[in-house]
Amino acid sequence: MDEQRRHDVLSAVGPRLRELRRRRSLTLADLAEQTGVNESTLSRLESGSRKPTLELLLPLAELYDVPLDQLVGAPRTGDPRIHLRPVNRNGMTYVPLSRPGGVQAHKLLIPPKSGREPELRTHEGFEWLYVLAGRLRLILGDQTLVLKAGEAAEFDTHVPHWLGPDDDQTVELLVLFGHQGERAHLKARTT
Asked: What is the pLDDT of residues 138-148, one digit of tens each?
């Protein structure tokens, strides 16, 4: 590996670590407590002012449950399949369809929730979704939409929003999510 490539690989580790931590809603203090690596070191590692070492990366890879080569962005070799590991969060099942970094793809299963009022949330990023099965109720600011299988929507996640089934059936979605500015662009043919 040439010097420039090595520099590029090492420079990408910090942002990748920051994204993994934020996706799990952890603070640097939480991370320090769970890994035994002090908070200052973790901060410098994420900002790129500290070079990643095996001693620092191994506890992080273990905590995040990701292979070490994924943390450092090692080139993919061999089997290109992504091993699906569903995650249950807030009553929904997320099935990651991509590796961390850049725009993330997930299959999302949202079961019906009896008697619960929608709670609108905001967060960093931009989201694109496609309904695979069921009927999705999307509340986006003051607007309420119902999308059926085959329909798609995209929106800035700074706008208060909520997703859920429109009826008593589980809704199944394909979701692409990226940081602000990382939009999923689709080229459509015009008729």
From this structure: 999 999 999 99
Residue 22, φ and ψ in degrees, nearest 5: -65, -40
Closest listed residue to residue 132, CA positions, set 100, 169, 83: 169
DSSP class per residue in 89-128: ETTEEEEE-S-SSSSEEEEEEE---TTPPP--B--SSEEE
**Bridge partners of residue 155, in order along the sequence:** 127
User: What is the maximum alpha-carbon separation in the chain?
Assistant: 59
pLDDT, averaged across the chain:
83
CB 171 within 8 A of CB 133: yes
Phi-psi region of 25 (alpha: psi -120 to 50; beta: other; left: phi over 0): left
Closest to 134 measured CA to CA, from 174, 171, 109, 173: 171
Task: Quote the tokens at residue 14.
Answer: 């910090």
Rg (C-alpha) for the chain, rounded Å, is 19
pTM: 0.55
**CA separation for the pair 29, 17 (Å, rounded):** 14
Q: Which residues are CB-neighbours of 187 under 8 A, at least 6 positions away?
A: none
